[in-house]
Amino acid sequence: MQKSAIIIGAGVAGLSAGCYAQMNGFRSEIHEMHTGPGGLCTSWRRKGYTFDGCLHWLVGSLPGSAMHRLWQEVGAVQGRTFHRYEYFTQAIDEKGNRLIVYTDPDRLAGQLTAIAPEDGRIIRRMIRDIKRLSRSDMPVEFSIPNLFRMLPFIFMFIKYRMPAEKLAERFKSPLLRELFVRALGWHDMSVAFPLWTLALMAAGDGGYAIGGSRPMAEAMAERYRSLGGVIHYRSRVEKILVENDRAVGIRRADGTEQRADYVISAADGHATVFDMIEGRYAGKKIRELYERLDPFPPLVYVSLGVAADYSGEPHAISFPLALPFIMGPHEISRLGIRIYNFDPTMAPKGKTVMIVMLESNYDYWEELGQNPRQYRAEKKRIGERVVAGIAELYPKISRQVEVVDVATPLTFARYTGNWRGSYEGWLLNRKSMGITLPQSLPGLSNFFMAGHWISPGGGLPSGVMTARSAVRKMCRSEKRKFVAEVP
Question: Residue 34's CB: how many other CB atoms inside 10 A?
């Protein structure tokens, strides 16, 4: 008799889990609380503009790489055109000095050395490490042979486990210290992450899929349906049913129940462990990790539709504000802009989409959300301040903006259920380095988890990789060989 599986969430992890479940002979259904697939991997349209909420670059865009094979298995990359970046980002300081973080290691070395010839030795070492890593293809499955292939990545992440600020302290040049942090620093994330990204891009990987996130999510949903899977939208799961320490199904928000042999939660990790199962199987280790690890800070996501052509401008740039502004407990003293001048599908011809992401505070917005009038007023104010800030770099922008769309941490939480509005799970820093959260809960059988709350650092690859692993564990439980195929 064919075994059944219920999957909670139709984001990248849930869709991937569904695809692999179907490939391996399980009869699966996905329950998604939103109206379409993708979860955080999404975009939305406003007055002819498309605002993308996820995809900046994709690990596995390079044909022949191990990760590309996984994306092919779940139907995500077939027929997609990928844009390769000449540079990762640009950063400007208060005096107008600029660092261009080229994806070609030799050009990057020239840029860094021109800024700080006195730091030539450490620059050469860093570039050497980037080049070495660019020649390695990251394995996607654990095995003894793959453990040896992982060594370059392990060494890189150990050597550069500190945040960008700590690495920058080794530079003699104050200018390079400043620009390096402005370009590659984010919160207290390990600097290994952006350096690894540069290695990917140096190898020709890490491209951007023209069309953005939504077509990718829709392609994955279509792949799942073609394998015989069923997706239920507007189907919020409130409880995971448990009998005799075994997951046996779900209860939806409307009170209806559905039973299955296995349950995979690709939903928010905190909601899964502490709400859907009421913390009964959390165990000491998982409770400690949820108390100790740092989620990615929530964002205020400001999207602009601009009636002007910015094709000659940097696609990613950060700069200081002459007039900083306050947003809750934070002072916003710099802006980072992403200009979608490399994707013609995002805006009508001759127009441009710009996106600014501001690190924010969930509690501040949660309190504002209790008063809809104040909440709307603050969103409007932040949008206006962002436009005014961009005008310091591009003075004509104020009269060119046609659309201002502001998403807050409450928006992220409402549409995706992510804990405290976090957009990528656990921050990759010293606390989380080398940690992988368990995909099952102690004492609970026939239940697995997938998604970025399992794998610190998050990102789209964590979705498909943890989903693949979850279904492999299901196959092991059934004593059957795991299979994965490219359509």
Answer: 19
The answer to whether the CB of 41 falls within 8 A of the CB of 52 is: no
Domain range summary for the chain, segments of one domain joined by +:
4-48+55-79+212-294+424-477, 85-203, 299-415
Q: Which amino acid, 186? A: W
Residues 174-195 as b or e (16 or more Cβ within 10 Å = b): eebbbbbbbbbbbebbbbbbbb
How far apart CA 202 and CA 339 sit, in angstroms, is 22
Q: Left if phi > 0, otherwise alpha if psi is -120 to 50, otherwise beta: which for 219?
A: alpha
Instruction: Decide if 290 contacts 271 (C-beta within 8 A).
Output: no
Give Rg (Cα) of the chain.
Answer: 23
Q: For position 143, what pLDDT does the model report?
A: 65
Sign of CA dihedral 75, 76, 77, 80: positive
Give the pair of three-digit tokens for residue 478: 């059934």
- Residues 190 and 158: their CA atoms lie apart, in Å, by 10
In the beta sheet, which residues pair with residue 82?
209
Distance CA 21, CA 15 (A): 10
Topology given in CATH for the domain delimited by 4-48+55-79+212-294+424-477: FAD/NAD(P)-binding domain (3.50.50)
173-225 per-position pLDDT tens digit? 999 999 999 999 987 889 999 999 999 999 999 999 999 999 999 999 999 99
pLDDT for the residue 433 = 81
Mean pLDDT by 10 residues, the chain (487 residues): 96 99 99 97 97 97 97 98 98 97 98 98 97 88 70 84 95 98 90 95 98 98 99 98 98 98 98 97 94 94 99 97 97 98 98 98 97 98 98 98 98 95 90 88 98 93 97 97 97
- Does residue 212 sit in helix, strand or coil? coil
CB neighbours of 95 closer than 8 A, spacing ≥ 6? none
Q: Quote the pLDDT of residue 144.
A: 65
Bridge partners for 358 per DSSP = 300
End-to-end CA, the chain: 26
DSSP letter for each residue of 379-437: HHHHHHHHHHHHHTTSGGGGGTEEEEEEE-HHHHHHHH--GGG-SSSB--STTTTT---
What pLDDT score does 118 carry? 98
- What confidence score (pLDDT) does residue 155 get? 84
- pTM (two decimals): 0.95
Closest by CA to 339, choosing from 306, 381, 382, 387, is 306
- Residue appearing with tokens 């009421």: 278
